Automatic annotation (TrEMBL):
Species: Polaribacter gangjinensis
Protein family (similarity comment): Belongs to the alkylbase DNA glycosidase AlkA family.
Taxonomic placement: Bacteria, Pseudomonadati, Bacteroidota, Flavobacteriia, Flavobacteriales
This protein's name: DNA-3-methyladenine glycosylase II
HhH-GPD domain span: 37-190
Keyword NADP: no
Top-level EC class: hydrolase
Amino acid sequence: MSKPFSDSILEKIRQQLAVPHIITTNDVFHDVISCIVEQQIHYRSSKRIFAKALERSGLERVSLETFDLFEKHGISQLKLSMSKFETLMAFLDFWRNNTQDFSLLTDEEVKTTLSGIKGIGTWTIDMILLYTLQRPNVFPVDDFHVKQVMISLYQLHPTQKLKANMLAIAEQWGHQKSLATLYLLDWKKQQKMK
């Protein structure tokens, strides 16, 4: 069981649910490609775009060495927007020229490094920190699902100071922002199943 939260809404959820568990790939390259192609990483859309592209390529995981195969058989049929394609190419260029181990970087170093790649935004970086690198204090304030669940649970107005209000609530979570986020997302999944 995890430590109690001072946020009463989140604490009630913590008491109802098992501690969230992430099965991570530990593979920054694969997960960034997934984010670019599908704009989802761990709660994949029902379309399973990325998974289907992998299947068509005969791959379980995409790497720099297998990207050409993935591009030819997996994503060529997807009709990616020009901006997504340009982001993929920028990321490939970056990866070919950089061999750093992201697990050794601080959160800020990961943010600085990835945000320097054209087309890689805050959401993708937050997903990599939260799911791939499993950092403990990540709050993906721009995530659609996090916004939805917080609007619902905390009675937030969807257009008035939403981000500021979400950040203020997240401050109550101290250095457990990742765990808090995972509880919120698990709660949302549970509600869908009812």
